Amino acid sequence: MMKIVLVGNAITASILNSYLRGDSRYEVVGFTVDDEFVAQGGFEGLTTIGLSQLQETFAPESCRVLMAIGYNDLNRVRESLFLRLKGMGYTVETYVHPDACVYTEHPLGEGCVVLPSAVIEPGVRLGANTMVWCNVTLAHHSLVAENCWIASGTVISGQAKVLRNSFVGVNATVVNEVTVGEYNVVGASALISKDTKSHAVHLARSAEPIRYSSEDYIKYFGV
């Protein structure tokens, strides 16, 4: 059984801790964050260690670390911690939930997290330290680069590319052979049908109220 220290002590860490508790391959032995954040979260029964004390508490040869923090600052925080932990001698675990389906012949990048019901089709390349949430489809021969966050329900279509440090929101779709530039924000339910520039933001139009009441709408248009 692999001993794991989760990197994070907030909501993402809570979710991954729940998954790992039910996975016989792993034992979560603690949490780690930058020292100034130790008091801002945590979980009963498990220790949260400041990064400065990590090596003397959980030596690199005794465990692995798993990235369990959010997408703050376009994943730059995740990227910084990933690199620092590698520099401290830790192996960053690549976690694939047992209910995910991975068919690509290419090795997944170090430190990736792939959650339940995600499908990674043949030919996909997935970069290091990228989060793939539940019910995501990475279609054939697509690429998602390092330090990305792909939210639940997203579809990255065949031969599409999502470049480094991008955030793709819930139920977004990237069309075949389209490239999402690096450091992009793609909002929930957005449809990306053309290449985007780096550092761009693409949001779907929010649902807006119309002048009919729900009763009148059903009367005239049906549901």
TrEMBL record:
Gene3D superfamilies: Hexapeptide repeat proteins. Belongs to the transferase hexapeptide repeat family. Substrate binds at G70. The keyword Transferase applies. One of its GO terms (molecular function) is acyltransferase activity. Keywords: Acyltransferase, Transferase. InterPro entries: AcTrfase_PglD-like (IPR020019), Trans_hexapeptide_repeat (IPR050179), Trimer_LpxA-like_sf (IPR011004). This is Acyltransferase.
